[in-house]
Amino acid sequence: MRVLVTGGAGYIGAHVVRLLQERGDDVVIADDLVTGDVRRVPGVEVLTVDLASLDAIDVLSAGLREQRIDAVLHFAARKQVGESVERPAWYYQQNVGGLANLLIAMENAGVARLVFSSSAAVYGSASGAAITEDAQTVPVNPYGGTKLVGEQLVADAGRAFGLSAVSLRYFNVAGTGAIELADRARLNLVPMVFERIDQGLPPLIFGDDYDTPDGTCVRDYVHVLDVAEAHLAAIDHTVGGRGDHEVFNIGTGEGTSVRQMVDAILELAGSSLEPEVVERRAGDAAVVVASASKIEAELGWRAAHGLDEIVGSAWRAHVAARVDGRMP
């Protein structure tokens, strides 16, 4: 199979590219390289393009035809929640506009298989220990809104030109499958804790008075390798021309509290720092854990890596980057 991976030089995308290559698929990447790093994907052809730009449709249409692409995995997007609140119109232009351009190009080129990178942010303030795909979707920030509109757009495109598509709603992705593929962006809990440790500062915990066993928020942390494997299962599930759109959660179905995660990192790092509890952040639900039963039943996918592997792999990659000067 010949696969186009948009955002394939990014953290999750690069893991998927490697798995596709390992099983013998031919891969081409489309990436604007704003946050992506070509060092993650050596030897892979990269089509440098901003999917939201005016000329993206022509560039992508030509690329899909010339490369004889069979299927597309779409990761390219902006994903900073705070930035989306500050620049909502730009976020819709980037995330929804970029997806619209890609879908038009796919229709032009006759490519009818797609996996769309969505997010648990579509559930908004929904909370619980087993959030299912039919839970209410009311995003509480523009980033989540762009992902929900994206899912709707993919579904409409499926009905219009026979696209067979899967949208994957990620919960909290962490860890790494290889040192060179690690998450360098300090946007998620694990790299944020690493940064505080490096600075000799106590990791921050936003509130410890939630209705949970230790008072801190509980989240579903899933290893990036498991997320990557889910994409392979999803793209294999699509069949061009079927005109269908299915949605699956990507999580472990198990919750880990923020304090448990912070303590695990501090222990692994050999740090004597004590976490500092600060005020709650607005909108943080007490418990947000996926139900992953649907994807296991329909696609046969199940998370295989636990918390120790998530934290251990991320810390080893962080130390290696610190030693060889690759820290951002």
What's this entry about, in short?
The chain is an alpha/beta fold. Helices cover 40% and strands 19% of the residues.
The strand line-up of the biggest sheet is 3-2-1-4-5-7-12
Taken together, the total number of domains comes to 2
Residue share in β-strands = 15-25%
Kindly state the percentage of residues in helix: 40-55%
CATH superfamily placement of the largest domain: NAD(P)-binding Rossmann-like Domain
Written overview of the protein:
- There is one protein chain.
- With 328 residues, the protein is an alpha/beta fold.
- The protein folds into two domains: 2-173 and 222-250, Rossmann fold (3-Layer(aba) Sandwich), CATH 3.40.50; 175-220 and 253-324, UDP-galactose 4-epimerase, domain 1, CATH 3.90.25.
- Helices cover 40% and strands 19% of the residues.
- It contains ten helices and 15 strands.
- The protein has helices at 11-22, 56-66, 81-86, 88-109, 142-161, 189-198, 224-237, 258-269, 293-299, 307-324, and strands at 2-6, 26-31, 45-48, 71-74, 113-119, 128-131, 164-170, 172-174, 204-206, 218-219, 221-223, 245-250, 256-257, 276-278, 287-290.
- A seven-stranded parallel β-sheet has the order 3-2-1-4-5-7-12, sandwiched between helices. It has a four-stranded mixed β-sheet with strand order 6-15-10-13. The protein has a two-stranded parallel ribbon with strand order 8-11.
- α6 (189-198) crosses α8.
- The two termini are 35 Å apart.
- 47% of the residues are buried.
